[in-house]
Amino acid sequence: MLQMLSEYGTYNTELVSDGILNREEKSKELLMGTEMSVTEVAYAAGFSDSSYFIQCFRKYEGITPGEYGKC
Fold this sequence. Notes:
mainly alpha
């Protein structure tokens, strides 16, 4: 399937980045609007690994999810 998608140009890093950014936007809403822990937010936003979630969040936001939730 990945080969088929790449042949048509639809499977690329932009597609992956868009998915991560969509999950990150969801996580920002949860961090600011709930009392959920960072781990709970990671899973609710669709991440299967909270460490990876923290890494991605820091990459795109410049701060950790815990710091963002305290803002």
